[in-house]
Amino acid sequence: MSKENKLQTLLRSLPAMERILSDSRLTDYDSLVERDVLKRICRATLDRWRETMIEGDTEVYSDALFFAEIKDELERRRRPSLRGVINATGVVIHTNLGRSCLAPEAVKAVMACADGYSTLEYNLESGSRGQRNAHVEWLLCQLTGAEAAVVVNNNASAVLLVLAALGDGRESIVSRGELVEIGGSFRIPDIMSFAGTKLVEVGCTNRTHLVDYERAMTDQTALLLKVHPSNFSITGFHSAVPREELAELAHRRQALMVEDLGSGILVSAAELGIEGEPTVAECIRAGADVVTFSGDKLLGGPQIGGIVGRRDVIEKLRRYPLLRALRCDKMTLGAMEATLRLYLKGQWQKVPTLAMVSVPKGRLYERAVAFRERIDEELKDFCLLTSLVETEDAVGGGSYPEKPLSGWAVSLRVSDGTLSAGALQERLRLSSDPVIAGAQANALCLHMRTITPDEEGRIIAALRDVLSEV
Ligand SMILES: *Cc1c(COP(=O)(O)O)cnc(C)c1O
User: Using CA atoms, how far apart are residues 305 and 319, in angstroms rounded to an integer?
Assistant: First the structure.
């Protein structure tokens, strides 16, 4: 048979659409995906097979393989894509895993406005239109000492709005030590050009002095920007200008001092047992006219960008048209308000992010001991070797890159060698209740810091599933 004829015969062995759709192997999916969707998935599989046949990569049609491919795809598509996972990595503000977990109070507030109408932009007292920002403004002012506040979609939009509204068409001065890339494509120089303000760089990567700013200031200077170098640190011969001096200089020369703080921490770092990070209130006290920060980093709330500062400056932002494009939705505002109310009551320990960061190491050790015993007991039918290991956990979210949090983990390995740590890690990730775990010295590491007590049983169940399949 000629090559051409052989290919024609092979192509003819592919099933017709009618036959695929009526195959009993797909009947389970009838109620799960609409018929047109099912058809498109089958068509795509057919096209793929046809292509590999034409290219000579497939020489026989296998009915079993063909239907297995369709079923795999359908299984993958029927599972929710955005779903909960157990974070056993010890990284508290894990950006890929959704940063901060909301406090129960915040979740309740989300529910309260999610499935019904709400006072989002409605004033009950006057019975007329209200301000969506009003729900959090007073709280933010109380907690930061600022005169006024607005919130937007995230801190990146906060910075963009501030630079566009306040630096527009004029110059903004930044130290070369603070021209950072935050991750993804958020780079200070790019944001500045996008916002239409001219970037004026001063100083050097490692050292910038007040006089550098002073010399660069002209009648075109709109603002001095201080950016928190969140995700890296300069050590050694290094100096930056204290924010007080920067604010004083800005005000002396009729310019504004703006600070992008990154992580919006509202209680002193010392109280959390970590060093260094200034609170939003400290920046305001030091004279910053505007401070921007994330809601879902060390504040422990939803994804939001907080902007606090002088009343007249905030008023300018409120009137700037871009604000409308960056506004927050009601669920976010509900979660933010409830989170801030915890701070108002002095109950920051109820904010999960702060609780996980500040938990004493001794407590993590006790939990690791108990969890290990439970694993040993409940999974004794499997060849598991467990131990306790000290870990370097992290605040995460680009905060404190150089300062790991010392913690404890339960370390696991399969003693008969049937599963490497990497394979175990992967299978836990793919289990029906996904667990994201660390690995260290060829053992799986379950970091206690980010595992809630409720999740311990779920991790054991996931381990049992995975180990039963080996
Ligand atoms: C994280 C961070 C941002 C971006 O904040 P998002 O809330 O992720 O948009 C901007 N600036 C600094 C200094 C940061 O640390």
Answer: 17
